[in-house]
Design a protein that fits this description.
156 residues; 3-stranded antiparallel β-sheet; two-stranded parallel ribbon; 5 strands; 15% strand
Length: 156
């Protein structure tokens, strides 16, 4: 439970695959606790190997000269990379919204749909590599796609 002090700590984070994102936490201890329990993961790829990136607060010292850029601005993703990440997240959200999650029954349900034994609809779920290859050999169109767990639930 977060303390009710009305303030949040915003951290610049990066996963093991080098995706950069922001995380909001009640405190440094809250961030460390959530990481330790495996609750912090990359919204792009689901990687739970998370590290904090170098960032610095903006300090206004009242001088008239132009403020130098803050560290987080210097380390920010180039705009094309930000746009790519945003597009990926938008596409992933649309996929989640437009498909039924059939979990580990994916291969079985895909076959039922393909052979007309179940209503045709978009589905998603988990299948092993062998199951995926068998579906493809049967002529069943499948697309392996990693969707981060965070997108499958309610986003705050």
């Amino acid at each position: 439970m977060l303390p009710d002090n009305g303030s949040m700590k915003v951290l610049d984070l990066q996963c093991g695959e080098q995706h950069r994102f922001e995380g909001w936490f009640g405190s440094e201890d809250d961030f460390l606790d959530q990481c330790e329990r495996g609750l912090v993961e990359c919204p792009i790829c689901g990687n739970a190997s998370i590290s904090k990136r170098l960032s610095a607060p903006r300090l206004n010292l009242g001088n008239a000269r132009a403020d130098p850029p803050v560290v987080s601005e210097l380390l920010a993703l180039p705009e094309p990379a930000q746009a790519l990440q945003a597009a990926w997240l938008a596409a992933a959200r649309k996929i989640v919204a437009a498909t039924d999650d059939v979990g580990t029954r994916f291969a079985e349900e895909a076959r039922k749909i393909h052979y007309g034994e179940a209503k045709e609809r978009g589905i998603r779920g988990q299948a092993s590599r062998a199951e995926t290859e068998a579906l493809i050999e049967e002529g069943i169109a499948v697309l392996p796609l990693l969707l981060p767990e965070a997108l499958k639930g309610q986003l705050q």
